[in-house]
Amino acid sequence: MPRTKAPRKRAPRGSGSVYQRTDRDGYWIAEIKSPTRQRRQFSSRAAANAWLASQNPTAVSGGKITLAAWLDEWNKSPSRSPIDPATVSFYRQMASVWKTTPLARRSINTITPVMIEDQLDEWVKSGHYARTTASHLRRVLGTALNMAVRAGRLTVNPVPAVTLSGRPAPNRVRQIRISDQAVRDLSDAWLNHPLRAAFELSLHTGLRPAELLCLTWNDLRIADATVSVRRAIKARRILGKPTEWKPGDPKTAASNRDVSFDPEIKPILFAYRDRMGKPAPSSWVFPGADGKPMVPDNLSRAFRRVVDEAGVSVRPGEKRSEFRLYDLRAIHASLLLAGGVDPMAVAVRLGHTDVVSTMRRYAGYVSERDRAAAEMSRVWDAKKVPLDKKERRTAESGVEG
Where does residue 255 rank: exposed (0-12), middle (13-18), buried (19+ CB within 10 A)? Predict the structure, then answer.
């Protein structure tokens, strides 16, 4: 049975090719597929490729697109799902870094994992970028080249085979060690502070600062000692422009929750509301000077001044300036776990997606509680249990029979 030839795929419009004529002259032909069909002949292949690249930066030998051209096309292509503007800005910054490297002039089909590794290692070893930043650069490049694979411009994405040298960044989850006296010192320091209500609410509910600053008076039901979390303030960062803070969705779906607080702080919240002039139910609980939600940096600076006045540190030997507003959330969780509250209930209260997140951050407090429970719960007292002769000899010698 005669073999049939597979149909030849047509090159996309706008792409280019370079080939050599078969006659005795042997000129190299550079051609761009377009309605006008541009074609030039050259004495060398290098000259043909140079002209083709100058006419169409996405068309190099074989019709392959360069990395710089693909990153430009990727940044301009619409996304199938909505992306936060801050994420778009981050992608563009990472892509602009890759466009300054020698790899930017190469075809994406000729880039190998070793080339990417060498570039990342050069950045890290020279101190130009930290290892974490290099990891972000690798991730963004992988995302861009994944899109090239889906678009049929690249056969295999080389980024998954890339490994970063050096040790990964250490786990930054901190175990908070603060005494009851230190908590009382903090409370005394913010006793007459204008934002005392914010600090007390953060300590007694464990809300994230971004959630705390997006509360309205409809969300804060003081009479019921309950607060509803439905929003979180988010930063919108664009190169060359000041950061914008706007309300958005909470961090995760589990962050939409109702949290109860100690009724003892109700007088503090009522006094704060009266000082605000009994605001409208839809207004922000902690507004800034412009009437919008307060900027998180402003609340953090106010908290640092309180910490300096109280002279409190999170851990022995740690600088007071490292005690963050977010640590009030950690103190809240640690006190609950140390007091024997079920970790699942603590996870729901904190807005964690699962209890694993809670245990990963605060497992130290559960271990301390378990050790205390093991010391207290004895099924029997070994001294009062009568032993036979063989068991007595085993106990004295310490060797099992």
Answer: buried
30-66 residue pLDDT tens: 776 655 567 788 877 777 776 766 665 444 443 478 9
C-alpha 144/C-alpha 146 separation (Å) is: 5
Reference 328, options 192, 212, 193; nearest CA is: 212
Residue 218 structure tokens: 């409809």
The model scores a pTM over 0.85:
no
Listed residue (293, 361, 294) closest to 327, CA to CA: 361
SS3 content of the chain, % helix, strand, coil (to 5): 50, 10, 40
What are the strands of the beta sheet with 257-260, ordered from one edge? 220-221, 226-229, 257-260
Over residues 300-351, the pLDDT tens digits come to 999 988 888 877 765 555 555 567 888 889 888 888 888 888 889 999 999 9
Which single residue is written with the structure tokens 């693909």?
70
Contact between 152 and 65 under an 8 Å Cβ cutoff? The reply is no
CA distance linking residue 167 with residue 182, whole number of Å:
36
CB 296 within 8 A of CB 209: yes
Strands (E), 183-231: 220-221, 226-229
